[in-house]
Design a protein that fits this description.
The structure is a single chain. The protein has one domain: Anthranilate synthase, CATH 3.60.120.10. About 35% of the residues lie in helices and about 30% in strands. The chain has twelve helices and 20 strands. Strand 19 (about 360-365) and strand 20 (about 370-380) form a beta hairpin. Helix 5 crosses helix 11 and helix 6 (about 175-185) crosses helix 11 (about 385-400). It binds the ligand C=C(O[C@H]1C=CC=C(C(=O)O)[C@@H]1O)C(=O)O. The ligand C=C(O[C@H]1C=CC=C(C(=O)O)[C@@H]1O)C(=O)O binds near residues 317, 360, 373, 374 and 377.
């Protein structure tokens, strides 16, 4: 048995389990947001770079280097920084240098800990009834925001905006987060798993399929995803859906905006850059995605994984294109602060190596409360109904790990309560035990705006 770690991150390349905090780094990566509205010509010229590398950003990375030096002086031989950067880089980062950590192989960990017995007990322990669920925005408002974004594209240079929602769940009791995390890992053995305790006692937990950046020496890798379709139970149907996705001009266009933006960011930083001509298909348990694996060799070997990741972040896979204008549109139509949702999560060492995944297919968990996040890239040809369905399909990763039916988020599939009680009775009983009906509007960050503000 392991002690509960301060931080857990796993990919096919490396697993990291960290304990104790030596030093926190809770500054924003960028101290100010750019508010000036550029003219069209300037907007085009800046579209890809949108001033993402600033003096402030350099100051942040200098502070990190200094923190590594202090950690070394304090006897931490090979310090690493772990944590997350929010979607909006002008908000404080949640980074820390742990007192100790161990690196391990995820494959071995899964083999040792996820035998059939522990899978079943993980499923049972993590299954809960949902007493209340609330989507912010709700279906009508989300679709309205999609229509607003499309109307905006016609009047501006914005070509894509990623709109998202948070599904707020009140469960009938506290979740066993160890069991839940194990269940999530077992159901989604590939990708990037993370578990990050936050200052307010909550935890950010997820299984993201998307790599923003990995750096090993001078080599950098990125694997952006954009363009999605829901997986099907029937294998023949599933194959047809994947083929339709790879032929969909709307999805290929949506994907190409991401790739061109990342290419424009990486090109000046790289002596070599390999970007495949066309996207390929990849899948998770719940979704098909268009995916482009990108590899580069850095010109400057001192540029760290986190510096390059912050240069790219947020890509049009989570924000839009052009980035700055899309960000403003998101702020206008999205009725909540994303916080760490849509941010990046990972680690880096003092040599600049590290791995940063995009914080999607994730949630924030506090006792018996979960907030799950899902977004969808909107372009001119988007259909509001199918974009809403896409967010539902993406939520399935976390809902399945919770044992909740995504179509009926108020019905848990797996019942761990005593037999002979109806779901209704159990819900009522649990609500009475809880002693109150949850006031979602009173919830704090990130669901903290009352309605669509546009
Ligand atoms: C914003 C999310 O997905 C991104 C990653 C893959 C495909 C996406 C899409 O097709 O819109 C999104 O860009 C999410 O899962 O919440």
């Amino acid at each position: 048995m392991h002690r509960t770690p301060e931080f857990l991150f796993m990919s096919s390349h490396c697993g990291i389990r960290a304990h104790g905090i030596y030093e926190r780094l809770c500054l924003p990566v960028r101290a100010t947001s750019e508010t000036g509205k550029p003219g069209r010509a300037r907007l085009r010229a800046e579209s890809a770079s949108c001033a993402r590398s600033t003096a402030n950003e350099q100051a942040f990375h200098t502070r990190l280097r200094e923190a590594f030096q202090r950690a070394r002086s304090a006897g931490i031989a090979n310090p690493i920084a772990i944590g997350a950067i929010p979607f909006d880089q002008t908000r404080p980062a949640q980074l820390s240098i742990p007192r100790s950590y161990e690196m391990f192989s995820r494959a071995l960990e899964v083999e040792q800990n996820c035998g059939l017995e522990s899978i079943q007990s993980g499923a049972e322990k993590s299954a809960r009834h949902v007493l209340h669920s609330n989507s912010v925005p709700d279906e009508a408002r989300f679709k309205q925001a999609v229509r607003q974004a499309i109307a905006n594209f016609k009047l501006s240079d914005i070509r894509k905006a990623v709109l998202s929602r948070v599904l707020d769940l009140e469960l009938d009791g506290p979740l066993d987060l160890d069991a839940f995390f194990q269940h999530l890992l077992t159901q989604n053995p590939a990708g990037y798993h993370f578990r990050l305790p936050l200052d307010d006692g909550s935890q950010l937990i997820g299984a993201s399929p998307e790599l923003l950046l990995r750096r090993q020496g001078r080599e950098v890798f990125s694997n952006p995803l954009a363009g999605s379709a829901r997986r099907q139970v029937d294998p023949e149907q599933d194959r047809k859906v994947s083929e339709k996705l790879s032929r969909s001009s709307k999805d290929v266009y949506e994907h190409s905006l991401v790739i061109e933006d990342i290419r424009a960011q990486l090109q000046p930083l790289c002596a070599e850059l390999a970007v495949p001509e066309a996207p390929q298909l990849m899948h998770t348990r719940a979704m098909w995605h268009l995916s482009t694996p990108i590899r580069g060799i850095l010109n400057d070997p001192t540029l760290t994984a986190l510096q390059v990741a912050c240069r790219l972040h947020p890509t049009p896979a989570l924000c839009g294109f052009p980035s700055r204008e899309a960000h403003k549109l998101i702020q206008l139509v999205e009725p909540f602060e994303r916080g760490l949702f849509g941010g990046i999560v990972g680690w880096c060492d003092a040599e600049g190596n590290g791995e940063w995944a995009v914080a999607i297919r994730c949630g924030i968990f506090t006792d018996s409360h979960a907030q799950l996040f899902a977004g969808a890239g909107i372009v001119e040809d988007s259909d509001p109904d199918s974009e809403w369905r896409e967010t539902q399909a993406k939520l399935q990763t976390m809902l399945s790990a919770l044992g909740v039916d995504p179509e009926q988020p108020c019905t848990a599939k797996v019942d761990t309560r005593p037999a002979g009680q109806s779901a209704q009775e159990k819900s009522e009983e649990s609500a009475q035990q809880a002693g109150h009906k949850v006031n979602h509007a009173a919830r704090k960050h990130p669901v903290d705006k009352a309605g669509v503000r546009a």
